[in-house]
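INFO  loader      accepted 1 record
INFO  loader      residues=714
INFO  predictor   begin
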Amino acid sequence: MCQLIPGMGSPLVIKLMDCAKAIADGDLKFADQLFSDMEALSAAETNRVTKKVVEYFAEALARRVHGVHPRNPFPLLPSSNLKKISYEPSPLEWFACMSTDYAIRDVLNVKKKKLHLIEISSLVDCWQRHSLEEYLLHGHHGMPLSFQYTSIRPKLSKNDDYHQENRRMITEVAQRSPVDFKYRALFADSVPDIVESVLRLERTSEDEIIIVRWVFQLHKLLALEGAVDKVLSKLKDLKPDIMVIVEQEADNNTDDFFYRFASSFKYYLNLFESLELYATSVSSLIWERHLRWQICNVVASEGIDRIERHETLARWQQRLYGARFCSVSLCSDQFADFLYDFSAYKIEENSGFPVLLAAGHPLIFASVWKPANATHFSGENIGNSDDTMRGTDLNHPITILEESTSPVVEPESVSSSEFAEPEVVSSSESDDDNEYAYNIKRRLTNGNIWSVEEVREYLDSPFTEKESKRLSRWKSRKLTRNVAGRDKQLNVPDTSLASLLRIPPSSTPILEEKQYYVDDSVINAFFDLLKKRQEKFPDWYKRNSSLPTWTMTFLLSGKWTMTKLLSCINIEEIAGTAKLFIPLCLENHWILICVDMEKLEFLWLDSLNSPLDAHHTEKTTILEWLEKHLLPVLGYRNSQQLKLMQLNIPYQTNRIDCGIFVMKYADCLAHCDHFPFTQQDMPHFRLRVFLDIYRGRLPVPPSYVRFLRALYNI
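INFO  predictor   done
INFO  writer      dumping tokens
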């Protein structure tokens, strides 16, 4: 784990890591000796920030060992006299406010009479008033006539006079604006308090804009089982126009204590170093107290008491998509003023959301969501399909609406069967009987089920009249960035599917190539369909599984260690598989890795026909993870003998179709070890993959259709 830690050459940091490891192993006597060593080394540490952060983590370790925890659930303000607090917000607060502010302005374009802003936040009250003043008095010309502000936050002072004064000052700010203003404060000092406060929220009328914003609070609900699901379900029923979530981009929600300790140290050291550049008297003191309390909670507490459970943007996306929320992209070019004032920071987009970085390390992210209605919802898009799809293809009149005002419903009746041939089967029971009879016939007559001719026939199967009509309709429809298709669990937005309908010309300018690319959501969905097909026809196909596209990206980038990656893999789903598919995107180019579990072969399928020694570092890292981590837990011995192989495969002749090649490589490997296709098949494959994902299943094999025809004499 030590490779995670910046400045690992510092003897003080090394001792701290050794001490945490000793405590994790239960060797408290050795840990006590290391505490003494750290005291001696602390005086020699020249980096003031490193020394401070080590001190805070050492304090947290001591609290963990002795079971001593802070008495207050949140750090209190240093003063209860509001008028004496001259507060200059930190860069983190500026970022949180600006990302929220732009989203609110967009929503206010909807003309309604009432606005209800619900804020669940841990920011200090003086920043709350500053933000409210900016919002009410400066430039929000679309303000409704009535404005209710509900604040759900912890008590930041034990002094009741403090809270009364804060209410008075907020009301005073509101009175300077021409709106009917109401203020409601709900204090929530624990996770159950937050949940109860949210469950009490109600919509007063349909003529009301509701905006919910979570600022550094939503992650705390992960401490209580079921709390996140319950709260998101309530908010979905509340139907807010948008829900803004600002969270720390960290990864410490794990029961593995040493991993949590090491990754948290890296994160908080980067965070303290960034804040050191813009320290002011009050904000610096308040944030330092708050982060010190966070460190104590992350390190010293367990169970429901450990409420600082930060997760990455990718993980929150999965949770929110699963709760049926749609993502609303935020554009990072809105932060020019912020970057001018805080030049040490950078803002990068991740899946359409801005992430604040310092020295290349992500610190916090802002994201915007809205609940889906009954007919559409936005799905997981790890590869940022919005960016992928912003290009315009003049050859295909597909347009994108700014925001969805119509549900994604195909303008036709939905049939229970896609092909005319199987419709002769009258019931699901008949389907099962036919499949059983056909499976027996295949096993008895042909042990090597799929011939090259059969695979080619499958790949080249023509479109039915019904399929052709669907393709024609989709080429002229408007796109809404909502999930399309019958199987919503595939989570593929219609904008991502639309890239498959765009057929690139033989000579495509580089600047126009992006509109034809397929993104992660398409790739992952197709591999899900491969697995579902095998499960439906287990006697036709050898068992296959796949890893999501992000797995190797996280491993190769160093974001996850090999141990961390293994802990996130569902071993039960992979156990017993014959072929494990791993789609990988390297430098904007898709490559397929296939691990043949029966032959213990590592297949590297690169449609660019790269030299055998290309990507040596990536191959070595992935092989090491497979041999030393994955295969042993699957029960394989001598896994170090995994052989690197290259097959005789077709290659692409343009710079665009690598994603299509990867999907069809896997499709062929699921049948046999032959690849009877070329670049000339790509236009047909694009449309076929589109139909497969839209329908939520791969085509019925032509040989099975012939069997049904013979069975029923049709």
